[in-house]
Amino acid sequence: xxxxxAVRESFPALSREVRGAPxxxxxxxxxxxxxxxxxxxxxxxxRDGTSNLGGSFVTSxxxxxxxxxxxxxGADLFNAEPEEIVFGQNMTSLTFSVSRALADTWRPGDExxxxxxxxxxxxxxxxxxxxGRGVVVRQVDFVxxxxxxxxxxxxxAAVGPSTRLVAVTCASNAVGTIVDVRRVVEIAHGAGxxxxxxxxxxxxHALVDVSATGVDFLAAxxxxxxxxxxxxLYGRVDQLDRLDxxxxxxxxxxxxxxxxxxxxxxxxxxxxxxxxxxLAGLGAGGSRRERLAAAFGAVGEHERALSARFLAGLAExxxxxxxxxxxxxxxxxPTFAVAVEGVRPADVERxxxxxxxxxWSGHYYAVAVMERLGVLDEGGLVRxxxxxxxxxAEVDRVLDALTRLSG
Length: 407
Description:
Low-confidence stretches: none
Mean pLDDT: 95
Helix content: 25-40%
Structural class: alpha/beta
Number of helices: 14
Shape: globular
Distance between the termini: 36 Å
Strand content: 15-25%
Largest sheet: 7 strands, mixed
């Protein structure tokens, strides 16, 4: 059982008030709060002084130690090896880097597969990489009538002997759908194709396991799991080694360093490690990976309870439509895309914001999702999401506000 009161004490921003009432911080780009241990780790590194790597003096050595600690933390979070963890400005930048390197191995007539369930950061980099190379881009649909589930039969039909890559999300940042990544990998690897997975939205809600899924690449952003704005990339070591990275000549020619352009933000890397340790501290066990597994078990239980309450309440509000699975469980994250009849999404966001309830409206970069649902030109949808620091009282407060809006 998750101790939500203790969790909330770890997030200083959650005590903020808006117009005399506690603000309700909900999950979304730029909206996830940093945990206090992350803030302390980053401030401490800056306070003590920092330097670049490679020097024979204490601050340079400390930068090396911070980098190594962050790689170990990322490896534990993803169930990988430290040499398979690459850092970058964000998931999007890392994906562009890998897409360019992979594109150098493609030939005219090759094919890649993307989905319209994905955030655009896992679509456009691949489409641009294919452009001008004679590489065919195939797009796999999702099924709105089936809770916005990925069309796995369509995926199997799209993948063939010419397929070189399948790009897929682990969980939709728009409608919350969780994808069976292991099934995607089996289809792709069966045709000899690689899989690049976007775990940005999945990582704060469930335990990533690259070993179990068998993905070749996986990217996430630590701000989504309560850390700083730093991207993490897992790459199978043989793939990272065989590909030519776009880099400057003095950069390393092997290992994750060859993929990390320029000087890293060492204070952010200190925050990445602290964020993983924060998550691990929510669980019990021997190794950090074991503690993370226990923690995400408790997080999942708590978030499913919040989801069940929200979905039950939402079903009672006339004029509010949900896109995605209407049942809490393994098929979705606690992230909900809704439309309020007669009220534009931006106005819903604004009016909730005036009550101290922070949500997002629009397409949230999931452009293809909104196009498929036919709402892009109508202003998209309203995203309401819960994470492990949210409470039942906050769920009820959001439901009450939606009831008033739809009346």
